[in-house]
Amino acid sequence: MAPQYAPSLWAALPLLAFLLETLLILLFTFCIQYEQWEVKESSFTDIYAELQDVSVMVFFGFGFLAAFLTRYSFSSLGFNLLVASFAVQWAVLMNGLLFSISNGKISVSMRSLTEAQMFAVSGLISMGAVLGKTNPIHLLLLALLEVTGFVANTWILRTYLKVPAVDSIMMLHIFGAFFGLMTSWALRREGLEPRHSKEKVHRKTGLFSMMGALFLWMFWPSFNSVLIDHTLHAKKLSVIGNTYLSLAASAVSAFVFSALTSPRGKMNVVHIQSSMLAGGVAMGVPMSASCTPWVAVTIGLLAGLLSTLGFRYFKPYLQVNFGCHDTCSILSVHGLPGILGWMAYMLIEVSHSDDLSKSLRFTLYLMCTLITTLGVSLGLGAITGVLLKWRGWRPPQDRKCFDDQAFWEFPHLAVHK
């Protein structure tokens, strides 16, 4: 007898997706224009190459990284594509509405497209916290609200705190992680076990996930440096070099501390494939600081340690004591390393200053930046979780969470009568 799966999305998902895309088409028709500017062919090629690097991370890297679940890998890849495709379009509009309006029109350039992809990454980070326990309708709505909130957060930081555009956007790791955590906490279900019976990793799915992690690891220097102006050659080289060094150190750190924290001294592949990215995350926030190579290596080492400990201890603690189920452990991969990078930025700048009053003002400025980001992300995440709990969104049944067959056709598994 055929199993009973989650409520059908036959009408709800196509209707929502069609309405959202129709709205985007109308807004693009009346509000969008391409920016007119002259640029040398070599410069244009360089910018497009970096845009493609970020695209590989968004659609390939994050998609395969989330494909570690044995019975949910197909959904992880497919829903990543769906959410990222929608989030990029919505981010172009929201970002342009606040920062790129010219003569009553939103100007689209190569830089704004790149920024839109980075805004979409914040949505993909949040998606990692609720992966497997939601359906595509939930994820589309989450991306809609999360990207809107993150663009609003960057506007607040840039308008009231005078945070540079690059620094405000690189808060995406902290914002996405805590937004996703609060949404997951608000979506908690009574009676659901801390660890679902289908929440398992298979050797094959783990291999695919490692491939996604390696692509992210290789392209992360482009992600951190893509918004640095091409005329600032020394600055761009510094960001790329420091990111590479930090990633290398976090990879080594992940291997070391995964084995050290294991009762049997064995390495956990999930720890490795995620914690090795923590160095790139941690270097995103302090990239505006004058960071020397040894500092970058130290940040990467500490980020790998913090991320591995987060996987081993923080994730189960949150599940058991707070009912906050973090599927991809985004707190360990993005949240904690992001805060580590924020602390490193503060310490680097303060250590380079001889003026005590200036150091205190800078510390207060950075604290306001972090508090604002955390406040907006936690508050909006809680609101999003409450909205997504509405039964009309047809959430999957508890026993059918983390199961591809709730959403996809598999002809070879069909029951023929």
TrEMBL record:
Keywords: Membrane, Transmembrane, Transmembrane helix. Its main location: membrane. Functions as an ammonia transporter. May play a role in the elimination of ammonia in the gill. Residues 21-389 form the Ammonium transporter AmtB-like domain. Pfam families: Ammonium_transp. It comes from the Eukaryota. The chain crosses the membrane at residues 12-34, 54-74, 80-101, 137-157, 169-187, 207-227, 239-260, 294-314, 326-348, 364-390. GO terms for biological process: ammonium homeostasis. GO terms for molecular function: ammonium channel activity. Gene3D superfamilies: Ammonium transporter AmtB like domains. It is a multi-pass membrane protein. This is Rh blood group, D antigen. It is found in: Membrane. Belongs to the ammonium transporter (TC 2.A.49) family. Rh subfamily.
